Amino acid sequence: MTQNIYSEYGDKTIQEFVHLFNNGQLNLEPGFQRKSVWNISDRRKLIESIFQNYPVPSIFLYKQNHNGRLCYDVIDGKQRLESILMFQGLGRFRGQRYSVKARIDEHEGLAEWNWQRVTKRRHEHRFMGYKIQIVEVSGEFSDIVDLFVRINSTGKSLAGAEKRHARFYHSPFLKLAGRLAEGKKKYFEDNHILSKGQISRMKHVELTCELLASIHASGPINKKKALDGILAGQSFDQRSMQRCVKDFDHTLNLVKRVFPDLRTTRFSKVSDFYSLFLIVWAMDKANCILTDTKRNQQAQKLLSWLSDGVTVVRDQVKKAEGAKPDQRIFADYLLTVQGDTDSIANRKRRADILRQIVGGIFERKDDKRGFTAEQRSLIWHTEENQKCNKCGQSLTWNNFTVDHVKPHSRGGKTTLSNAALMCRSCNSIKGNR
Questions:
Q1: Which of 44, 178, 308, 322 has the CA that lies 20 to 30 A from 31?
Q2: CATH architecture of 373-430
């Protein structure tokens, strides 16, 4: 590992840990820590072990001196300490109390115990006096983070997203992506893109990072290489981050609008969703009109058709039947989600298939947005009644506008046949209607 970490071995009672916590000297959530992943069953087993006086694993603490005051960051043991504090209902864990079934009172046998009952029966000394082995470490901060990642490679091992968070938690990109991902948790969960368990292990942050990085790269990326590079501070300035965040929000809103029934298809799976998101982003950048209700309904039906077809072929393959000639596109797509689903080659192939299925549905906006001076002059002079086509107000050369009868955003062309005189007020109110 490293020669810059120094370790001291000893023990602390639960009473000592509680004192440190109440005194603000115990930091359960240093920046590199992951979120809590223990469930209530895990927590109860720990408390039962303590009351039975069984040994529990050591707790690793990063010892620091803050202005003459000794403080500890928890490197390993966060879940254990949280479970103890929750059982007692201390501090911010007051609302997370729980009970356990244990043999605490020899006269009662196995019974349900909460902290209130423990103290009422005067058994708290058995709990508060329990000693936990500790390892106090000090040294270079980067080495402490590396130690955290190494220690957490066993038990409920760190997911890739958690390791990345630990190593790069100081990264402005990761902090920004984290805030953005927190706001999208409900969408990811409601559409079955990510489960609660995956979100608790920061997969929503990883997915958001990956999509932001792909927008920045203008296409599919090698996830690990690209993310590690960006999080380490390569080629991603503040302006680029803000642009990518804006694109991310806009594209996600378009995905919601075009594919409202996403959760009923296989495109709620992370790998498939990644590809679909980037296709929608690319179509929007190509000035495709993604706001037409009828075309969106058709796109949703085609996506469901592709999803159902892939499922049928997958079941056939499981039965060693293989794909039929008219199922070739489903078989091709199935190959991209088997094995290394996140390779650039598979991602590009998925994108090609999706583009082939839904890409041709959507009209493109006219590249020419505004009417030229010549067109404006022609329209003005060919109108017999130079009045607003909306409210009838008389217009002058200095206050008229030329309106797209069919809005440009909905595929209207910037041509004389799609033009009408309008006052500024009515044109502003009309918007893209």
A1: 44
A2: Orthogonal Bundle (1.10)
